[in-house]
Amino acid sequence: MEYPSSWAKHFASLAESEVVMGAFLDKPKTEKHNEAGMGNGLHFGLSSMQGWRVEMEDAHTAVIGLPHGLTDWSFFAVYDGHAGAKVSACCAAQLMEHIIANEDFRGKLDVSQGTEILPSIMDVQKGIKTGFLKFDDCMRTMPEMVSGEDKSGSTAVCAIVSPTHIFFANCGDSRAVLCRDGKCPFSTTDHKPVNPIEKERIQNAGGSVMIQRVNGSLAVSRALGDFEYKNVEGKGPCEQLVSPEPEIFTECRNEKDEFLVLACDGIWDVMSNEELCDFVRSRMLITESLEDICNQVVDTCLYKGSRDNMSIVLIAFPGAPKLSDEAIRKERELDTRLENKIKEILDNCKPEDDVDLSLVMHELMDDEIEGLPPGGGLSSKRMTVGSILKRLRPGKIEDELELKAYSPMGRPSSLL
């Protein structure tokens, strides 16, 4: 069977990542960490999963109602660590405070006075950059960083939501996407070494870009930590091989704003902006649980072949899609169609045949199945297929997340 060239490129990219980034587990760790909250007219849910990686290096922040008089402001972030989890954990614990408490963010006002004068757009933008740079400087002085014992780093993608604006800050290749009126009018820009501006800075600092990595090693060109790449004499902090400078974007809030997604590259490796937005919108029509939607995204990305840690924060605005009786009905009809097709597959097998989930998924891929979730496709219904198969063939199949359902490269064997 032949596959589209885009698949070949994707699998080649995964293979290259495996060689460069190191070891993986024999089977993915699929336990999820979930959080949810609401306030300031927002709802949020999040999910994170270790997946195939030997260590969980992702971290996150989700705070509704900020200190220093910013009670109607909120802060959300995803941090994707590499070469260890120290820097990402520090980001989750301290970066927000470094941003909102510095003098630039507060417009030179003394935050200890509890003033209710709010920062201007320019204050916020300047304060975000100041917070990132000062925080990076603070981490550099940590004993394990000074000694070189810890060489970890982390991307950071943040969103500060005020009553009137959304401020985005991105440093690395985690990404934020805004869905407005059913479309994705905005996303942050990934900072990859091959980007012309990034490559020029790296070369000006005496480095090189090989196999799409800084000096053939690091896959991101901006990050917090990674201090071994920030020691070029005569260069400022934003001129180093790896820069801690965030790229900052500002969007005016709109009544047509639906939701905001922050996620690490473990999600974006296998889903495009449009696919993820379409999938989330379709799930919002059938469930009000943002945690459940995030879990479905993470599971779908695992089944699509993601080999990385995965973290996603989903923030819903008042204009988010609401439950739809029609959408719920169509989802039930889809499940019924899947069950009927699975019955057909089983009817063509002998009772003693080794029918497992990967075989059934492979057979279903050859069918034109109406009504599959946009952006998620059959991969997003894999758990449903597994549940149906267990019910129809009890004791005849392995658990739906057993290693047998995956190839050695971590892709579902139904794609081989």
Automatic annotation (TrEMBL):
A Gene Ontology term for the protein's cellular component: cytosol
Domain PPM-type phosphatase: 43-317
Cellular localization per UniProt: Cytoplasm, Cytosol; Membrane
Matches recorded under PROSITE patterns: PPM_1 (PS01032), PPM_2 (PS51746)
GO molecular function per UniProt: magnesium ion binding; manganese ion binding; protein serine/threonine phosphatase activity
Membrane topology listed for this record: Lipid-anchor
Keywords: Cytoplasm, Hydrolase, Lipoprotein, Magnesium, Manganese, Membrane, Metal-binding, Myristate, Phosphoprotein, Protein phosphatase
Family membership: Belongs to the PP2C family.
Record's protein name: Protein phosphatase 1B isoform X2
Protein's organism: Octopus sinensis
